Every structure is written in structure tokens, then in C-alpha cells.
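Replying to the earlier thread about multi-chain prediction with a worked example.

Input:
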Amino acid sequence: MAEWLAIVLRVALVLGTVVGAAALLTWIERRLLGLWQDRYGPNRVGPFGVFQVIADMIKLIGKEDVVPPFVDKPVYILAPAIAMATLLLVFAVLPFTADFQIAELNIGLLFFLAMTSLAVYGVLLGGYASNNKYALLGALRSAAQTVSYEVFMGLSLLGVVLQAGSFNLRDIVLAQEGLWFCLPQALGLVLFLIAGVAESHRLPFDLPEAEHELTAGYHTEYSGLKFAMFFLGEYLGVILISAMVTLLFFGGWLGPVLPPWLWFLLKTTFFALLFVLLRASLPRPRYDQLMAFGWKVMLPLALLNLTVTGLVLL
Amino acid sequence: MQALFYITAIIALAAAARVVTGVNAVHALLHLIVTLLAVALLFFMLGAPFAAALEIIIYAGAIMVLMVFVIMMLNQGDAAVENERLWLSGRLWWGPAALAAILLAETSYLVLAGGGSGVEPRPVDGPAVGRALYGPYLLAVELASILLMAALVGAFHLSRKLRGRGRTQP
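Result:
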């Protein structure tokens, strides 16, 4: 009984922290964007505007949740759930510290890749079910983009797998005790970061919802809580990719003096803020440029990285 | 564990039945995805986590995405659903039903005759899959890679730009 209670508490802790962090990140992003664009951002509600998150939440819950009459209803309702659930599931296999992990899976890394590849259905089905041409175009772009960038996302991680000799995330972190993989796998790190930005549909790769040409892309027809789930899903993606970069390339919880969980938190926060900085500073490429870049530059580089790593290890 | 196996198997079968009998193409594809996920879970429970992960990444996550992609682009409306409904009624069922009945008879014979394959199931992890693929099954891997190469060259040929005209081949 106590064992079950401990598991439930762990799940609740991780779930609460992750979703709370994703919500907080929306406020942090707006404040930071304000800072970098020489304006204030939301600073009215509470100290520094931090309660803006709660105000937004109340607003979204209070709004009418419209299901337009022309949509494919079951799929329309399913889509935001897929977008959020697949990303949340991955947090179950992440080792936050050496002894805090919900489920140790010896194919943890593959589980991450599997869930991110399923996450595209959220966007794809949302766009299809909305029965709206902007939503459909956004969904088509998203499918093409995700399938392309997924290919070398997997390939860029294989260098790490080769060096650690395991798919188990915990073993991968422990293998970095002497040297973090960000040095020997520098190319893999860059490739994974770019693929991660593309996978979570963040600027500069947010073409599925590019507002200047597609109104809001795949979630044009969504409102209320369903919209909130898509929105939160995006920030969950940011946190997830940051956590994966930390685990795979920057030694996870490893670090001197400070307690392990704090190291993990600091490193993950750093990369989440890097995502925001990217959004503030980079312009959006054209769609064909994005695809050509993926297949003609990133894929060969990922294969090169894998070959060289394999040769060195042999 | 046994109960989990049967629940998953029933989900896989029910979803597969909906794939065949469904009239809306996208809904049928969604059921196919559920089937694939259930089969992946079965692999996982039978001690093949690596195969389970690949099933999801490759089949559910990549191939099915492309199929949904194509069907979305065709954007068939209610007319296609009506059409499908007409096709699915009546005599069309006899052929597939006969083939499925033969398979069912074979399976029941094997189950009733007992014995099975005589191989003890044991967990197969990633390295074991790699050793099997590049050991005894090397020839099959090479043949598959030749096939994929041919498909790649074919796709490239179909989508290449005609020189000087700047448009793709019809």
C-alpha cells in the first residue's frame, strides 16, 4: 500500500511540476520577449506580473468551448488530448536524479522518439478535423516538417547511444561521469537542438502556425480549454527537448557542490530560455527553404556524425 | 500479465475489424494506428521492447503519418463515404471471408494440435536484435536495402525538375 502511495505521489509531483512549469514558461517567455524588444510585457497581475499565468488560466477555462458544426467531432476532440498526452508520457521515463524516476525503461530513448513521432498526430488530426483550409494547410506542413526532421533527430542521437552503449537514459547520464557528451558529440548536439526546435514547432520553425499566412494554422478552429491544451503542449515540448538536451549531452543531474535535482533544473531552465532567445532573435524561413535545409544539410551531417563516431569507437 | 495480454489482443482485433468495416477513410486509418499501438504493446509484453519501439516509431509514427497525409490532401468528402458504403455491402465480402476462414482453420488446427514452435520465449533486447540482423539475417538486410535504394532512385526520378522548364514531370 505504501509502495503504491509513493508511486502515485511521484507521478503527481512530476505531473504538477511539469505542467506548472509549462504554464509559467508562457509568462517567462512574454516577459523576456518584452525585455529583448525594449518593452515591458505583462507586469500588472501580482509581483512582476507572475500571476498573469493564473489570470490566463481562469480566462481560458471561463471561455466558451466552441465545437463548430462542420468539424469531424470525435477526431476534433481527440486531437488536443493526443498533443498533450504523448508529450506528458515521456516525462515518465526521464531520470531527474540518480534515484528519482517514475519508470526505468531500458529503451527510454526509443520511447522518447516514439512518443514525439506520435505527437504529430495531435497537430495533423486537429488540422484535418477542423475542416478549414488554413487548418488543413498548417497540418500538412506540420506533417511534412515533423516526418523530415524526425529522421535526423533519431540519427543525431545515435552517436550518443554508441558512446554510452545503451538506450537507457539513466545509463546514458552515468556514462557522462568523466566527460559530458556535449564535447565529443558537439555536432550531434547542434543537430539535435535544431531538430528539437522543429519538432516542437517553435520559431524559427513554426511554419505550421505561421500567423502571417495561415491565421493560426492547425488550431484556428479551437477555443477555450482545447486551445489551451494545444498551447500548453507546445511549451511542454520546449521543456521536454530542454530536458533531453540536458540528459543526453550535458550530464543530466551530474555536477559539483549543488544537489543533483538543482543541477538538472538549472540546466533544463537554461535551454528553455535559449528557446525563447531563439524566438526573439531569428526570422522565419520560407517553407521550401526549411525542407531543403532539413534534407540537404542536416541529414548528411547527421550521417557523417554517426559514421565518424562509429569509426572512432571501432 | 495474462489479463493485460488478452485485453490488448481484444483491442487490436476490434480496431482491426473497424479498419476493414469503416466507411470513413481517416477514421479507418485511426483505427489502424490503434491496432499498431496494441500490437506494439503485445511485442513489449512478450519480451521484445526493441521491436515494440520500432513498431511505433516506424509504422505508427512515420508510415501512417504519410498515409494520413495523403488522404488529407485528397480531401474526400461525403461522396467518398457513400461510395465506400456501396462497395462494402453484399457480395464483396465472400472472397476475403473465405481467405480469412482458411487462416482461421489453420490457426485453430495449430492450437488444437498443440506443440507450438517449441521455442521458449525469452526477452530480446536491442543488441540481440542487432546481432541477429547482421549475423544470420545479413542477406535479408542487404536485399531490403537494395529494394529501398531502388525505391529511392524511383522517387527521385519521378520528382526531378525538367531541365530549362522549371516544372516537375507530370
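Residues 2-122 of chain B form a domain with the Four Helix Bundle (Hemerythrin (Met), subunit A) fold (CATH 1.20.120.1200).

Feel free to reuse this layout for your own posts.
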